[in-house]
Amino acid sequence: MAIHPSAVVEAGARVHASAEIGPFCVIGPKVTIGPGTKLMQGVTVTGRTTIGARNLIHPLCVIGGDPQDLSFKGEDTTTSIGDENVIRESVTINKGTIKGGGQTVIGNRNLIMAIVHIAHDCLIEDNTILANAALLAGHVRVESFAIISGWVVVHHFVTIGQYVFIGGASRVGKDVPPYMLLQGMGGEIRGLNSVGLQRRGFKPEAINALREAYRILYRSGLPKPEALSELEKMDGQYPEIKTVVEFLRAADTGHMGRRRDVRRKPPAAASAPPPEPEDDIE
Amino acid sequence: MKAHRSAVVDPGAVIAEDVEIGPFCIVGAGVRIGPGCRLGAHVLIQGSVVVGRDNVFHPQSKVGAAEGGRIEIGDGNVFREYSHIDAPKAGGETRVGSRNRFGVCVAIGSGCRIGNDVRMGGYALLGDACVVEDEASIEAQVVIGNEEPKRVGRGSRVRSMVPLTEDVPPSTFMDWDPDTGLPGARDGAAREGGGA
Question: What pLDDT sits at residue B188?
Fold first, then answer.
């Protein structure tokens, strides 16, 4: 185990023998760091945080900090990071809240660029890219192979589907269906992420089917229920279409087109005291 | 004062007995910190700074500089990671009230006046000499007053990423107008949803 003499590793922390802890790092007593993971200088890891194997964490990150949420009262919630992620400078990752399930989870092989903020109860799957200064509010889910460009703000409870591409400086307030491309302050779906799909090895016929699905959903003028019925006629041939249909139906089960919004506490009864203000400040 | 052995606390600082100061913090001479405050790792407070009680400074947050005017911070504020308050110019003053919450990377320019119960989301930026009145809510990545000082009125809300070009009157909900591409007032009751 290579721990720089200036680093502070509190009693109780479990650091694997092959992990490296750089100068001026601070590692809390409930932290677990797996084999081959390297923390460069000035990284703070706090709370009940587990970091897997072969991650590279660049200077000044703060991982496992308290949630920015009024409901948090000091509970011992968790942060979990998988294997082979690259986390660049000054990234913040907050731990979970009880109402959100109590855990923030980062999967494997993600590239999280500088100054990204990942709030409480987020779930980042595998092989995603979050570019500089992207901001994920609480309870956001990012499915595998999605790419979020720089300076994007994602509203709390949003789910971003697999292979989605979000253009720079966009504002995302609703679930984004898989394979699509979103761009702009209004969060509009602008097209299919066809370049991304080609790069990931999707067959041309599958890409063409998804392009047709995009046209039916966003350019045909059909109301959404009818558009989904049209897509269901296609989904026997292409599993990707089925994925899109299931995603959109699930989005409708939540509030404001956000399926994870069901995690929000139910509205207060008429006789109850006034509700607290919206609590996320991401 | 409970300071980590690696923290650098100037003997000229006046710090209440129960204040917690984390590893690698730097607290300069001329700083006064009231009871119940907590400083996480790598926090920097320097200059003529008066901090009230029960404030929480998360890791890497920063207040002031070695030279400059006075900064006064009330009670019960939360400063998240990398948030910072610039030092006012010599003779100037920056005031932050009580029970405010500042998200990650929030920047507060020199000479600003911030009331009570204000919320600022991540990466929100206040230029020099801006005024934010009580109970205002400024969401993520809003840039205010980077050319000239602006005022955000009491109880107003500015949606995320809106580029503010004018003052915000009290109780106003400012959002981006997709027709003009400029910020505009919206019905304040429509508090939810930011997308299409």
Answer: 56
